[in-house]
Amino acid sequence: MKPKVTMIAWNQNDNYVVTAVNNHLLKVWNSSTGQLLHDLVGHADEVFVLETHPFDCRIMLSAGHDGNVFIWDITKGTKTKHYFNMIEGQGHGAVFDCKFSPDGQHFACTDSHGHLLIFGFGCSRPYEKIPDQMFFHTDYRPLIRDSNNYVLDEQTQQAPHLMPPPFLVDVDGNPHPTNYQRLVPGRENCADEHLIPQLGYVATSDGEVVEQVIGQQTVDQDEPGLEPSILDGMIRQLQLEQDQRTGADQESAPSGPQNGEGTPRRG
To answer: What span is annotated as the signal peptide, if there is one (predicted)?
Structure first.
């Protein structure tokens, strides 16, 4: 097999260069002389993640498609910590990306099964307030293009950026309780009735019909005692301002040549 470099990274002070090779070895080089200093052995598949510590020049993190995450001391060429991403009933999950926190006390990884793995010092209590499975109900909604080639949500016929903030659901499309819905930007101060999604029956690719979130429950704006949606009001206000600007531009633009000669100026 012809060796190929799959990833390269400098350490924090640029004294060392670490390369990942497709024979599953990591090589540590002196960046000034090009001398090979260490071979780091541990990975069993290709490595596409090399992340240097934000301030400790000795530390380098590596992760690969074998599900292994290593913390290395590249000055000594030794392994400091190791984690294997085993998923119960599904084998290992390939690690696709890793990043250190700015203080160097934590790092986070994402894997091929959609998991976010957070490592660090302290307890996990701050993370226990969120559910294990978090998706937006619009994540896999189909899109279409209109006659002007603009993208629209197929179900609502709206531009995606004009739709209300999405709801948090689990992997099966079941909505989470209202206290979780307030974690979504734009829903922090919503009333309880605006945090209850509209459910409907959707056919899956297997032909099975399941109940899923299909949109936000809307209230009749003319019904007494109910306040209009703040988001809808903002959208209407922005559209009104845009229409007013467009009208003003059209009034100030020249209507055409006064003497019938020449061509009108393009707007």
So the answer is: none
H or E segment and range at residue 234: helix 230-252
Instruction: Tell me the C-alpha distance between 129 and 127, whole Å.
Output: 5
Choose among 6, 113, 119: nearest CA to 64: 6
Please state the φ and ψ torsions of residue 50, each to the nearest 5 degrees. -130, 120
Tokens of 144: 């279409």
Show the tokens assigned to 240. Answer: 């009104």
- Could you report the per-residue pLDDT of 183-218, keeping only the tens digit for each? 888 887 877 777 777 766 666 656 666 656 666 554
Contacts of 106 (CB under 8 A, 6+ apart): 100, 118, 119, 120, 121
Residue type, 152: L
CA distance 142 to 152: 9
Give the domain range for residue 187.
130-217
Handedness of CA 138, 214, 238, 246 (dihedral sign): positive
Separation of alpha carbons 32 and 253, rounded Å: 64
